[in-house]
Amino acid sequence: MANNDWKSRLGMVYSTNPDYHFETSEEPEAETLPPAEQRLRVRMERAGRKGKTVTLVEGFVGTEEDLKELAKNLKTKLSTGGSAKDGEIVIQGDVRQRVAELLRVFGYSQTKG
């Protein structure tokens, strides 16, 4: 089997049907919209984080790689920690204004926050 696709078929029973095409239940990732078309929201949150203040960037439409790249750029420019997953970027501390300014510099003109 080419391209190691056997890993995604674990548990599949062999089929002798020559017209059979294996389908996975994975949904394809959405293409990343250009920065000018992204509608990002920047907000601060403290609830559920043991009193720690974080800045959230929500509304990113695109692949996980692009989300992680944007988070990496923000964390580097702000010299702070954070993470990116599930279409959301979490930056440590209350840095809403700086995040919004940086996003506008990066071309995300429809940023609110």
Describe it:
The chain has 113 residues and is α+β, with helices and mostly antiparallel strands. It has helices at residues 64-78, 96-105, and strands at 41-45, 54-58, 82-85, 88-92.
Arithmetic mean pLDDT: 85
Biggest β-sheet description:
4 strands, antiparallel
Domain module tally: 1
Order of helices and strands, N to C?
EEHEEH
- In the sheet with the most strands, the strands line up as 1-2-4-3
**CATH fold type:** Translation Initiation Factor Eif1
Task: List the SSEs and their pairings.
Layout: E1 41-45, E2 54-58, H1 64-78, E3 82-85, E4 88-92, H2 96-105
Antiparallel strand pairs: 1-2, 2-4, 3-4
Q: Concise description?
A:
By secondary structure, the protein is of the alpha+beta class. It has helices at residues 64-78, 96-105; strands at 41-45, 54-58, 82-85, 88-92. The chain has a 4-stranded antiparallel beta sheet with strand order 1-2-4-3, covered by helices on one side.
What are the defining features of this structure?
single chain, 113 residues, alpha+beta, Translation Initiation Factor Eif1, four-stranded antiparallel sheet, 2 helices, elongated
